[in-house]
Amino acid sequence: MSASQAAPARDRLRIAIQKNGRLAEPARNLLSACGLSWRESRDKLFCYGESLPVDLLLVRDDDIPGLIADGVCDLGIVGRNELDEQGAARVQRGLKPAFQALRGLGFGACRLMLAVPEEWDWQGPQQLAGTRIATSYPAILKDWLDARDIQAQVVELSGSVEIAPRLGTADLICDLVSSGGTLRANQLKPVETLLDSEAVLAGAVIAPDDARGALLAMLLRRLDGVVQVQDRKLLMFRAEPANVAALEKLLADAEPLVRLPADDGAPRLQTMCPGPLSWQRMEELERAGAQGLMVLSVERSLA
Ligand code: PRT
Ligand code: ZN
């Protein structure tokens, strides 16, 4: 079934996530944080939603874009690299886009990069003309090469891309990199970034217009309430009015200070900080007059 055909009306939402692998656990944890829970099925390929009519399908990440395109699942949690690759491949085959990234989820960060043997003296992409590039991301790579008018041979491999130059099946590679350890272990060095990736919530280009639409909207709102605050810290302290200006300067990256109702002692203040607060920073604030500093993690919010 193509995405343009109307999918049969359903009143339960279906989300595909990776069964095993890097994104499996964080995806599940995120959905649990959104208030979803499931009755596990024995084969664990399908988990029936208990708290809400939202079921899980546990699959290989490669299958997730196709499941959305075919209307089997409404949503999926998948790397942007996988989604973009299958999206680019569809367009190259003359098909219409059928899925899209709805939200970045802040985990599974990696980059799709070109990496060359360490001994290469890298001058820039023009050096790629006439080379053979091994990759599991042929469609993204083709688009990138075409956009730069570079004629190179794309060698598609489904795995172990990093050993291709040593085996002589390619001159360089285009692969995912996170720490860079795998490249170093294979005497390769990263030279160009094609894509900055992270896990995304993907959905159909045409959103469902039955009961699932309202569920989807609610889930997105909850997801934003978890993802957008996940690194934030609520900072609380007391300070004499004379010290507030100096403290505000030290907290320039935070939201404006809020003064809480007065009680005995120095006025109580609070603010939301965008990222973690180191001990060093807390001690700095203390020296500037903040008393009884407290840092609280923010679990969720409703805008
Ligand atoms: O079985 P299934 O098909 O579902 O899983 P998979 O083996 O295809 O995928 P999996 O679990 O390895 O990765 C799922 C997703 O995690 C990817 O599509 C990316 O979006 C994301 N991700 C984040 C990564 C990495 N980081 C990563 N480092 N995927 C793969 N890698 C590879 C990298 O290419 C290298 O070979 O891990 C190796 C170690 O990387 P370094 O740079 O830390 O050495
Ligand atoms: Zn895979």
Automatic annotation (TrEMBL):
One family name in Pfam for this protein: HisG
Main subcellular localisation: cytoplasm
Reactions the enzyme catalyzes: 1-(5-phospho-beta-D-ribosyl)-ATP + diphosphate = 5-phospho-alpha-D-ribose 1-diphosphate + ATP
UniProt keyword terms in alphabetical order: Amino-acid biosynthesis, ATP-binding, Cytoplasm, Glycosyltransferase, Histidine biosynthesis, Magnesium, Metal-binding, Nucleotide-binding, Transferase
GO MF, one annotated term: ATP binding
Keyword Endoplasmic reticulum: no
Regulation acting on activity, per entry: Feedback inhibited by histidine.
Compartment annotation: Cytoplasm
Biological function: Catalyzes the condensation of ATP and 5-phosphoribose 1-diphosphate to form N'-(5'-phosphoribosyl)-ATP (PR-ATP). Has a crucial role in the pathway because the rate of histidine biosynthesis seems to be controlled primarily by regulation of HisG enzymatic activity.
Protein's recorded name: ATP phosphoribosyltransferase
Species the sequence originates in: Stenotrophomonas chelatiphaga
